[in-house]
Amino acid sequence: MPSTVLILGAAGHIGQALASAFADAGSQVRAQSRKPLPNSLAARPQVRTVRCEALDAAALGQAATGADVVVHALNPPYTEWDRLALPLADAAIAAARGSGALLMLPGNVYNFGSDLPPLLKPSTPEVGNTPKARIRIEVEKRMAATQGLRSVVLRAGDFFGAASPGTWFDLALATKLGAGRFVYPGPTDVAHAWAYLPDLAQAFVRVAEKRAELGGHHRLHFGGHTATGDELRQAFETAVGRPLRTGTLPWGLMRLMSPLVPIWRELLAMHYLWERPHRLDDSALAALIGRVPTTPLQQAVNAALADAGALKNAAHTVTA
């Protein structure tokens, strides 16, 4: 179904994947960003760059005029959530409501708090016992409470793939492949939810195609891949073609230095996500769109490592 889609935060991890997926599906994409888009995206004929600040209400309102879908893919730096997350959400809500567009939000599992259960359904109670849980709960509450707004939260695990720098995948897991190490942030026998970005982006497209059926506010879960650290290490070993030693992050040092390093303080507050097993139930999503896009884990890991240049680096080290 051809459409016009405004993506807020199109230069970010998921924003780029979404812009490509919607363009591939035949949509006209308005890609809002504060910084330049990658040439591979900006040069596409279906993509029109909208260079403006995300809190510029007039510019966002103009960009949203005539849009069928607005995607709120704006994600402030981890250390700036307290200051920016709610104003950015309000800006996205206003833009979508003013244009009559369906507002879509890439959700995460923060809403379920530090004691999140192993199976996460759209009906699972939300628990605001961490700062970021409270913020995400409030964002979604505002979406649901806005009169005249149609909205969907599509919740997923940690992103990987589609050359997305700044994720756990490339900032931890793949950082030491050249030295023969697999770096994992938590116990390697605990299941963790992951979302391969090309698959998640396709799910967004499929949900947007059903927008005529979506009145009011909806919460959907994207299952993606649920894998332990051991399972991911095995996939990495297959990708690089050799055994890998398992290492972890220096959590003790990070805790010691957290008063001086704000980003470490923020990461420590979310450490529980690596200690509690969890997966997302996407049966409601499947009921809406049919088969949920899911690339096999090994294929997704291979592609993600290749996109990040990690396979080339690992091979170079082995042969050097």
Write out key terms for the chains shown:
320 residues; Rossmann fold; globular; three-stranded mixed β-sheet; alpha/beta
Q: How much is the radius of gyration in Å?
A: 19 Å
The CATH class of one domain: Alpha Beta
The total beta strand count reads 14
Which residues form runs of ≥5 with pLDDT under 50? 316-320
CATH H-level homologous superfamily name of one domain = NAD(P)-binding Rossmann-like Domain
CATH-defined fold name of one domain:
Rossmann fold
Second rung of CATH, namely the architecture of one domain:
3-Layer(aba) Sandwich
Q: Number of helical segments?
A: 13
Describe the structure.
This protein is an alpha/beta fold. The protein has a domain at 4-157 and 197-224 and 278-289: 3-Layer(aba) Sandwich (Rossmann fold), CATH 3.40.50. The protein has 13 helices and 14 strands. The chain has helices at residues 13-24, 39-42, 57-64, 81-99, 131-145, 168-173, 197-209, 229-240, 251-257, 262-269, 283-289, 297-307, 310-319, and strands at residues 4-8, 28-33, 47-51, 69-72, 102-107, 119-120, 150-155, 158-160, 181-183, 192-196, 217-221, 225-227, 245-247, 279-280. The strands form four sheets. It has a seven-stranded parallel sheet, with helices on both faces. A three-stranded mixed sheet has the order 8-10-12. The protein has a two-stranded parallel sheet with strand order 6-14. Helix 1 (13-24) links the parallel strand 1 (4-8) and strand 2 (28-33). Helix 1 (13-24) packs across helix 7 (197-209), helix 4 (81-99) packs parallel to helix 5 and helix 8 crosses helix 12 (297-307). It is globular, with a radius of gyration of 19 Å. The N and C termini lie far apart (51 Å).
